[in-house]
Amino acid sequence: MLGLDYILLALLLVLALPMTCTSIYLLVLTCASRRTIEIGEPGDLFFDVVVPAHNETAGIANTISSLRKLEWATDRFRVVVVADNCTDDTALIASEAGAVVLERNDEANRGKGYALAHAFHWSRTQGLADAVVVVDADTEVSVNMLEAFAIRLNQGECAVQCHYGVLNAGASWRTRLMAIALGSIHKLRSRARERLDLSCGIRGNGWCVTHALLDKLPYRAFSLTEDVEFGVNLGLAGRRVAYCDTAHVNGEMVTTAAAARSQRQRWEGGRFELIRSKVPILLKAAFSDRNAICLDLAIDLLVLPLSYIVLGIAIVCLGASALLVLKPSSSSPAILLCIGLMDASCIAAYVFRGWILSGVGPEGFWDLVRVPGFVAWKLVTLVSSPKSRDWIRTKRENS
User: Fold this and answer.
1) Fold of the domain built from segment(s) 47-281
2) What phi and psi values does residue 102 have, to the nearest 5 degrees?
3) CA nearest 297: which of 273, 271, 279, 272?
4) pLDDT at 1 over 50
5) Which residue in 97, 113, 133, 337 is a FRET match for 207, CA 20 to 30 A apart?
6) Is the pLDDT of residue 375 over 80?
7) What is the pLDDT of residues 185-202, one digit of tens each?
8) How far is it, in rounded angstroms, from Cα 139 to Cα 60?
9) What is the residue extent of each domain of the chain?
10) Taking the complete model, does pTM exceed 0.85, yes or no?
């Protein structure tokens, strides 16, 4: 009969394998995250900048004001606000701020995905725009956003994502950690994928797609994580999402635990739903068609949030250390401990690079000591992930 120590060792080895694969994958992306140079001519494209909004009276005027400062000919773009199932004055405020307003009321089909599908269809029927751009209703954009998108589209790309960062990074430790996370996920990984000619995916805010592509692949993404879903659909259709590093959008992030919990539950619930529904299809396409884009999209979905990875590595290291104390003559726990420490080093390099790219400075670095508590909070949050597909607006501090 196997002893308890052998059973524990086997369990730790099973846990260590995905942790090691993930750590090596993230290290490869870290090493490939050097900035790419984007040079080209923007041309003369027409954009519909779509702002999906659900009860956004507090911030919609500021977002439209930011979009009005775009350095692009005013007769070559429109700001289109979709007031989706609103019960406040979002539509009125947006109209007074100079936006074209589409009011949508559909209790049966609620959510950001439906709002975008409605706006894309309307834009297509108008016959003016070459491409649509999506910007959230709590966002400030860099003045060169449309120019940067136009350069990439004129280079032959059909879908482009710019950097999505944090507008209020200095508001609290939570927003600084979010800035570091987005520096790692949105900038580090996207830079690497651009250099490797892969798809950076859709990040939900600050992305662009041509009508020519939408004609071939209509927008049908209505899950809790409709942005990731659409990026996956593009990959399955053989299209990548290019990364534009020279422009950015910054969205307001929540600072309170209650608001962050609601937001995180939707994100995590939607992500695991996509893992179940899309990963098998992506892996089949990756191996049957030798499609590197689909393979990377599948791996990206399978890579758990960093907090869970850190927790897994900690369990492996602590378990191996305990076995080493109990059986100092055995080499297996020592090897397992070395693997765990190697994984930890890979993750440390990844986080350090994300911190550098985030621009939050020393204060953000010291906030990383809160990560153990943040991991515990996320585990509790995951237990009660909601299943609703409704558009649940995250409560922010100015509303």
Assistant:
1) Spore Coat Polysaccharide Biosynthesis Protein SpsA; Chain A (3.90.550)
2) -110, 115
3) 279
4) no
5) 97
6) no
7) 999 999 999 999 999 999
8) 9
9) 4-32+304-383, 47-281
10) yes
Spell out the SS3 assignment of the chain: CCCHHHHHHHHHHHHHHHHHHHHHHHHHHHHCCCCCCCCCCCCCCCEEEEEEECCCCCCHHHHHHHHHCCCCCHHHEEEEEEEECCCCCHHHHHHHCCCEEEEECCCCCCCHHHHHHHHHHHHHHHCCCCEEEECCCCEEECCCHHHHHHHHHHCCCCEEEEEEEECCCCCCHHHHHHHHHHHHHHHHHHHHHHHCCCCCCCCCCCEEEEHHHHHHCCCCCCCCCHHHHHHHHHHHCCCCCEEEEEEEEEECCCCCHHHHHHHHHHHHHHHHHHHHHHHHHHHHHHHHCCCHHHHHHHHHHHCCCHHHHHHHHHHHHHHHHHHHHHCCCCCHHHHHHHHHHHHHHHHHHHHHHHHHHHCCHHHHHHHHHHHHHHHHHHHHHHHCCCCCCCCCCCCCCCC
Residues in the chain: 399
Mean predicted confidence (pLDDT) in 270-289: 92
More confident site: 113 or 254: 113
Which pLDDT score, from 0 to 100, does residue 382 have? 55
For the chain, the average pLDDT equals 89
**Overall average pLDDT of the 277-304 stretch:** 95
Instruction: Give per-residue pLDDT as tens, 377-395.
Output: 655 665 555 555 555 555 5
Residue written as token pair 């009660």? 384
The pLDDT of residue 122 is above 90:
yes
